[in-house]
Amino acid sequence: MMLPCYPVTLTGKAMETGGEEKEGDKLYTWETKYEKTWEDIREDADGLLTAEDEAEAYKLKRRKLFQHSSSVRLGMMRHMFVIVDSSQVMSDKDLKPNRLTCALKVLEDFVRVFFDQNPISQLGVISTKDGKAEKVLDLNGNPHVLSKTLCGNWSVSGELSLQNALSLAMNGLKHIPSHASREVLVVMGSLTSCDPGNIFTTIEGCVSEVLYRMKVLLMAK
To answer: Which residues form the Ssl1-like domain (predicted)?
Structure first.
């Protein structure tokens, strides 16, 4: 029994010249030139087989990714000090019952969310009043201890010293390895700071030498 033979069309000269294909350009299947399609198969980095154009696209994507690798930091381990303003202005009642109570309540919620998102991180608390800074709680990874500290007895007096508080935070963070982030969160209600030196020099030193990030939450009006 003879099987029917169907002619195939070559996309050669007619396609290159943009002209119409002629009847003589049609050849049978066994007369056409075979294509080595297996030569376009490549193995990617994951051991999967892909076409050559896909492999080139993957290499280009990887190359672009590594070009920006210098800006990538490991941020799984965060070490943060929270500086709380305990000066006399935190007793103002523009926020009920007063500024300090509202700030501590917000920080309780912050601690819970912080450890939900960063379970292997550490957080410490610093209080500043009377022109001094005091470490209420060193870097700690237990959210219950932090919540208990924030719910403790806090008193207000005198003026805050942002410079002393930042210096104390820097001393506690400078020994942290570079692969972990070192951060400071400042919660303050005073518009002034009683400092022994130039606060701007201290801030520049914090950002350039020690800190990865510093945030300031201002409650003053």
So the answer is: 83-217
Number of Cβ within 10 Å of residue 214's Cβ equals 19
CB 185 within 8 A of CB 152: no
Phi first, then psi: what are they for 155, rounded to 5°? -120, 155
Domain 78-218 has CATH 3.40.50.410: yes
Strands 132-140 and 181-188: unpaired
Strand residue runs (E) in 44-120: 49-51, 78-85
Domain ranges of the chain: 78-218
For residue range 3-46, what is the model confidence (pLDDT) as tens digits?
A: 454 444 444 444 444 444 455 556 666 766 666 666 667 676 77
What does DSSP assign to residue 208?
A: I
What backbone torsions phi and psi does residue 110 show, to the nearest 5 degrees? -65, -40
